[in-house]
Backbone:
């Protein structure tokens, strides 16, 4: 029997298999940031241990950093302490740190790929659930807890049970105004925020193959939002072209050898998955969420479901979500008011996302009632945006390009949505209070966010394209 792509990568990294227990898995790349690493380093200190392979670890501050005036001291004491601790710990253990104002600083899941630290066939972990982003390169990448961060720092290994395997195939051509973000929101709305629990998901099909690497990262990033352990896409020429020439990518003859090996990272024709799902790309329209988990989403021209359309076991959650959001059952999404727009995060903070937003708003003006935060995912994205004049396009339309960081994705910094306000966000989670206490989040693509920013309400971006 053939192997799935997931099996090939996982099995190649098993150091030992505990009988009727988890695998001891070797980790190729370990990414760390300021929030989940201090306790791990403190654990090493208590046990008198050093980082086993510091050259396979990369660090950057991202969650707590401000997105304006980054040259100044961080005024929030807890945020400043965590960032300072990351600097101290990486220096002590010889780990490469891309700190604030470093030309490669940024969100950890943005800078790993853009520097070529992420490569096909690797195992990658980070104390952050959206580590699944790196699966876009054909990696087995997943988030881990703080105690596991300590385990990887100490041993470069981790104990993990092997997940089941799911393949989601999307065939067909994407329609006008439909992006990678809409694909993944559509999938989650169909299988629910728990439909992937226990699985590692491979995404396949012509619609997936048509995506850029930025788009593929968006899809894999939100695998966790349907409860999956992670998601991955087989590498191809799009992958190799993206990686070629990047800082940590192989060079010369080694590059040729690696690409030859990477081309084998595909699921065999006779590979068997525990679950197979298929969707038609022609059925996907721009998506938006209406509730308090990413599975509560509809097409932009759709309406919030009526209670009778919700399974009885989910009705209490549904009612609670609508009460929090201030929405009524069976009402259309179009025309609902918007107060804030956030473009950024490890889901949609790459140059492709900023280009889409800027192209949409060019020649138009931001709605007076909207506050917008446009946040690049890294210093390199910021640099490229400046070089392309995206900042000027934004400024002419009433927007400002901020500095890199996680920003309003999770409100661990100064970028918080006020209580009761509605935010169309290109990030990955719309949980209660995720973007600030009492904040109401609607997840969408950069194009749908741009339409909302211009009109001040939920708008179908296709009306402008």
Residues:
């Amino acid at each position: 029997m053939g192997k799935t792509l997931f099996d090939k990568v996982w099995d190649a990294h098993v150091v030992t298999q505990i009988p009727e227990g988890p695998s001891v898995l070797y980790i190729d790349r370990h990414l760390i940031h300021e929030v989940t690493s201090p306790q791990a380093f403190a654990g090493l200190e208590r046990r008198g241990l050093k980082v086993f392979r510091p050259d396979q670890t990369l660090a950057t501050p991202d969650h707590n950093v401000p997105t304006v005036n980054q040259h100044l001291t961080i005024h929030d004491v807890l945020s400043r302490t965590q960032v300072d601790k990351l600097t101290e710990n990486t220096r002590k253990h010889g780990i490469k740190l891309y700190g604030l104002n470093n030309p490669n600083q940024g969100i950890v899941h943005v800078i790993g790929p853009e520097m070529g630290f992420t490569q096909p066939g690797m195992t990658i972990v980070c104390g952050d659930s959206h580590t699944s982003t790196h699966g876009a390169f054909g990696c087995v990448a997943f988030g881990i807890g703080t105690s596991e961060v300590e385990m990887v720092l100490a041993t470069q290994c981790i104990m993990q049970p092997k997940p089941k395997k799911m393949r989601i195939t999307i065939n067909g051509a994407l329609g006008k105004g439909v992006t990678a973000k809409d694909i993944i929101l559509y999938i989650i709305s169909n299988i629910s925020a728990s439909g992937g629990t226990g699985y590692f998901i491979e995404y396949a099909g012509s619609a997936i193959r048509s995506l850029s690497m930025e788009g593929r990262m968006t899809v894999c990033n939100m695998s966790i939002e349907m409860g999956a352990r992670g998601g991955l896409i087989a590498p191809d020429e799009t992958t190799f072209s993206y990686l070629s020439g990047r800082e940590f990518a192989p060079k010369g003859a080694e590059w040729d050898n690696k690409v030859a090996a990477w081309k084998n990272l595909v699921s065999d024709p006779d590979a068997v998955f525990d679950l197979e799902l298929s969707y038609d790309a022609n059925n996907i329209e721009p998506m938006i969420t209406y509730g308090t988990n990413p599975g509560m989403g509809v097409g932009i021209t759709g309406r919030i479901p009526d209670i009778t359309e919700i399974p009885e076991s989910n009705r209490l959650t549904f009612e609670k979500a609508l009460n929090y959001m201030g929405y009524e059952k069976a009402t259309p999404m179009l025309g609902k008011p918007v107060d804030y727009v956030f473009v950024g995060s490890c889901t949609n903070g790459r140059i492709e996302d900023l280009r889409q937003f800027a192209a949409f708003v060019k020649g138009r003006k931001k709605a007076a009632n909207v506050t917008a935060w446009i946040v690049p995912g890294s210093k390199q994205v910021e640099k490229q945006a400046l070089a392309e004049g995206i900042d000027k396009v934004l400024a002419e339309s009433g927007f400002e390009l901020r500095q890199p960081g996680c920003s309003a994705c999770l409100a661990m910094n100064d970028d918080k949505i006020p209580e009761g306000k509605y935010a169309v966000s290109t990030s990955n989670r719309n949980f209660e209070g995720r973007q600030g206490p009492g904040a109401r989040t609607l997840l969408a693509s950069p194009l749908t966010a741009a339409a909302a920013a211009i009109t001040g309400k939920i708008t179908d971006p296709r009306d402008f394209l």
